[in-house]
Write a structure and sequence with these properties.
With 507 residues, this protein is α+β, with helices and mostly antiparallel strands. The chain has 19 helices and 15 strands. InterPro entries: HTH_AraC (IPR018060), PAS (IPR000014), PAS-assoc_C (IPR000700), PAS-like_dom_sf (IPR035965), PAS_4 (IPR013656), PchR_regulatory_protein (IPR053142).
Length: 507
C-alpha cells in the first residue's frame, strides 16, 4: 500500500506514536525531509521544525551519508534496505542501530522513502554467557578505542615521512574531522599534532642519547624545516620529562587526600591506580563486597573480585584512557556466589601532569529495582496477550503532524501486514459500502467539527476479503477550537459460529 505525500489528508503517514524512541522520518526523492518525529532531537540534535522541508539527508547524516549512499540509492531504486550500523548520537553516546529504508510508490513512481532507525544495542550488547548466564559488556564501547588506536598507528608510520593532515586522517579512518580531534584529545590528552610531535621527540631522544645521530641530523630525518625548530621542540620535551619527578610528591599528597575522602564516603566507592590495584575503598564498598579482613589494598581488583576480570577488564582499559562510563544495570557474581544487578559509574582521575592515574568506581545494588521491572514486564506481556485474545486494538490520528497509528491487534483484525501504513483512502475501502460507510463518515465529521466522541458498530471487509463486525470508539482532542488529535479503540465483535465457539471452549 502507498499514498501520495501531497494528498489533502496526509503529507506523510507513519505507523508511529509521538513518544517512540525510534527515529522515524520521510525523505522525498530529492532527499529533502518531509517528516520527522520528536526522537530526531535525541538522535541528531535537531528538532523536526528545523528539519521538515529544510534539511537535506546529507546534512543530518554528516560523514555517515557517504557510507549509507549505496542503501539510499537502493531504496530510490525500489528495493527495501535493512542494515545495521554504529551511530554516535548528538549526546556522544554510541548505539548499535538497525536502519530500514522503505520505498514509497505513488502510481508506480517512487516519490521518496520512509526511514526507521531503532536502537538494537540491548539485542547486541546484552548477550549472555552460555555458561554463567551473566550479561556481557557492550562491545561498542571499545570500537571508538580501536579507531583511535588505528589513528595513532598511522601517526607512528609517518614519523619519518611527515605529518598527515587532519583531513587525510579523517578520510582514511572514516570519521569526521571534528569528532576525530575531540575524541583523540580526550583519549590521549594531547592534540593529534602534539601527540605526533611527542612520538618524534621520543625517537629523537633515544637516537641522540645512543649517539646514533646529532640534533641536526635528527632535524633532517624528521622533516623539520630548520634545526632551530627541532631544537625548540626537543628542549620542551626534555623539560616535560624533568618536571615529572617534581610532580610525584604533589601527586602523593593528592592521593592521600582522595584516599581519606573515599574511606569516609557513605556510598559504595573505590579508588584504583592505573594497574587497577586498590588504593582506597569506602566502608560501604567493603561491606557490600565482603572484603573485611582480606587485606585487599594494593591488590588488583581482578585478584580480589575474580568475576570482574572477564566482565570488566575491557571497560576498565577504555576508562583508563580518560573516558567516563555509566551503566544502568550489569549482572555480576559476588565472591559468595550471589548474583546482583549493579549500577556503575566509572570516572578516571588524573595526575598533576594530566595523565590518567587510575579510576574511581561507584556501584549501587539495584537488584530489587530489576526484580520489580521484571514483574512489570511480565504484567505488560499479560496485558498485551489479553488485548490480543479479546481483539481490542488502539488507534490514533494526529491532525497537526498528519500521522496515524494502528497497533498490531488492529492490523491482525483487518488482516493487513505488520508493515502496513494506514492512509485515509485505503481505510475507507475497508468499510462496507452503504450504511456502514455513511455512519463512519458522519461520526468522523461530527468529531472533527463539534468535538463529539463516538461509539459505532459497522461492517468492514478485511484486506483478505473477509467480513467483520467492528465496534469503533473515538475521542477527539481540541486545541484553540480545532481538533488536533483523534484516538480510540477498535474491537472485533464478529459473532463466532457454533463450530468455532465449541473449538474455542475445548482448546
Amino acid at each position: 500500500m502507498s499514498f501520495d505525500p501531497n494528498s489533502d489528508f496526509f503529507e506523510i503517514a507513519f505507523n508511529v506514536t509521538e513518544h517512540t524512541e525510534a527515529m522515524l522520518a520521510y525523505w522525498d526523492k530529492n532527499l529533502i525531509c518531509r517528516y520527522a518525529n520528536k526522537a530526531t532531537a535525541d538522535w541528531f540534535g535537531i528538532t523536526p521544525e528545523h528539519m521538515i522541508n529544510k534539511s537535506h539527508l546529507s546534512e543530518i547524516l554528516g560523514t555517515l551519508f557517504d557510507v549509507q549512499l549505496p542503501y539510499i540509492n537502493g531504496v530510490l531504486g525500489g528495493k527495501i534496505q535493512v542494515f545495521d550500523q554504529v551511530i554516535h548520537l548528538y549526546s556522544g553516546k554510541a548505539k548499535n542501530v538497525r536502519i530500514t529504508y522503505h520505498p514509497n510508490y505513488v502510481e508506480g513512481e517512487i516519490k521518496g522513502f520512509y526511514a526507521h532507525m531503532a536502537d538494537i544495542s540491548p539485542l547486541n550488547n546484552k548477550s549472555h554467557d552460555n555458561k554463567t548466564g551473566v550479561e556481557k559488556l557492550p562491545e561498542f564501547v571499545t570500537q571508538n578505542d580501536q579507531l583511535l588506536e588505528n589513528v595513532a598507528k598511522t601517526l607512528n608510520e609517518n614519523l619519518f615521512i611527515g605529518f598527515p593532515s587532519i583531513s587525510a586522517l579523517s578520510k582514511q579512518h572514516f570519521v569526521s574531522e571534528s569528532k576525530l580531534k575531540r575524541d583523540f584529545k580526550q583519549n590521549f590528552g594531547k592534540t593529534i599534532f602534539s601527540y605526533y610531535r611527542y612520538l618524534q621527540m621520543e625517537i629523537a631522544d633515544r637516537y641522540i642519547r645512543e649517539k646514533r645521530c646529532n640534533k641536526n641530523q635528527m632535524a633532517v630525518m624528521l622533516n623539520f624545516s630548520n634545526p632551530s625548530n627541532f631544537s625548540a621542540c626537543y628542549h620542551r620535551y626534555l623539560e616535560e620529562k624533568s618536571s615529572d619527578g617534581e610532580l610525584i610528591e604533589t601527586q602523593k599528597e593528592d592521593n592521600t587526600h582522595n584516599k581519606t575522602l573515599i574511606e569516609q564516603a557513605p556510598i559504595a566507592i573505590a579508588m584504583f591506580d592505573n594497574q587497577m590495584q586498590f588504593i582506597a575503598a569506602s566502608k560501604r564498598w567493603v561491606a557490600e563486597y565482603k572484603l573485611e579482613n582480606t587485606g585487599f589494598i594494593g591488590k588488583s581488583i581482578y585478584e580480589v573480585l575474580p568475576a570482574t576480570k572477564k566482565k570488566c577488564e575491557k571497560l576498565h582499559n577504555h576508562c583508563l584512557k580518560g573516558n567516563i562510563y555509566q551503566c544502568d544495570g550489569l549482572l555480576l557474581k559476588k565472591n559468595d556466589g550471589t548474583r546482583v544487578w549493579l549500577k556503575w559509574n566509572i570516572h578516571p582521575w588524573f595526575t598533576t601532569s594530566g595523565e590518567t592515574g587510575g579510576l574511581f568506581i561507584h556501584t549501587e545494588d539495584i537488584s530489587k529495582i530489576k526484580a520489580i521491572e521484571k514483574e512489570n514486564k511480565q504484567a505488560e506481556k499479560l496485558l498485551k496477550r489479553a488485548a490480543t485474545l479479546s481483539k481490542i486494538g488502539t488507534w490514533t490520528r494526529d491532525l497537526l503532524t498528519h500521522t496515524m497509528q494502528w497497533d498490531n491487534v488492529i492490523k491482525s483484525i483487518l488482516e493487513v501486514p505488520e508493515y502496513f501504513v494506514p492512509d485515509i483512502k485505503t481505510i475507507w475501502k475497508l468499510f462496507k459500502q452503504g450504511k456502514s460507510e455513511r455512519l463512519s463518515k458522519k461520526a468522523l465529521k461530527d468529531a472533527l467539527k463539534y468535538g463529539s466522541s463516538f461509539d459505532i458498530e459497522v461492517d468492514m471487509i478485511t484486506a483478505k476479503g473477509n467480513s467483520r463486525k467492528i465496534r469503533i470508539i473515538g475521542y477527539p482532542e481540541f486545541q484553540n477550537n480545532k481538533c488536533k488529535k483523534l484516538s480510540g479503540i477498535l474491537l472485533d465483535i464478529t459473532p463466532l459460529s457454533p463450530f468455532k465457539t465449541a473449538n474455542f471452549l475445548t482448546d
